[in-house]
Amino acid sequence: MTIEEKALNYLEKDTLAHIDMIEVIKRGFADIHYAGDDGVAMAEKKGGVQYLSVTHPKAGERLLSFFNERVPVMVHQDFLADRAVEKLKLAGYNKCREFTYLKKEKTYTEVEGIEICKLSMEWLDKVSEIYHLIDNPEYIRLLLEEGVMHGAFIEGELAGFIGMHTEGCMGLLEVLPEYRRRGIGEILERYMIDWNLERGFVPFCQVFTDNEASLRLQEKLGLTPSDKYLWWVY
């Protein structure tokens, strides 16, 4: 059994809770440090995000030693969050809920007056300026280079955008203030769901638990939530 198979054997015992780690492995850009019956420790090769899921605190303490300091880590158990901050010299964490689109049916239909297209590198400064959750223009540059950022345009003006993180998670959804309350966020996410399906990917996203609007949007679009939480430690 390969280390990838060992990792999937553990993670697929609760697919909805681990879809982020599963998709990194299946898309071929996982660097797996450890996989066993007591957990999985791994990193995503392109963006460097680290991942950890374990069965008990003692395993968590041991597997945290595989990770680099001051590099974000996604942990799947609450008892890991504070310990990851301390041991990896990180600043804090956000509690998230993971959503997965389990259907095969496409969900996007074109809307008159709204054009969605791939964003080119010329949008680097604009996207970096607008999207405040990531203060890293080089990361935005990488996503633009990979062709995973898409914008919604109304009469030639950028109204909003969405993308896919290096680990495969849908995100970076932003609608400019003057275009809000017009359903553009929903349109963009529907487009991104189909974009993933067309490439054989499982569409999934992670939402901060205090983002009520986004939580409602995922339910409206038919994504299935995990009954467990995860913690984005940064």
TrEMBL record:
CDD domains: NAT_SF
Origin organism lineage: Bacteria, Bacillati, Bacillota, Clostridia, Eubacteriales
Name assigned to this protein: N-acetyltransferase domain-containing protein
PANTHER family membership: GLYCINE N-ACYLTRANSFERASE-LIKE PROTEIN
GO molecular function, one term: acyltransferase activity, transferring groups other than amino-acyl groups
Highest taxon, organism lineage: Bacteria
InterPro entries listed in its UniProt record: Acyl-CoA_N-acyltransferase (IPR053225), Acyl_CoA_acyltransferase (IPR016181), GNAT_dom (IPR000182)
Segments forming domain N-acetyltransferase: 114-234
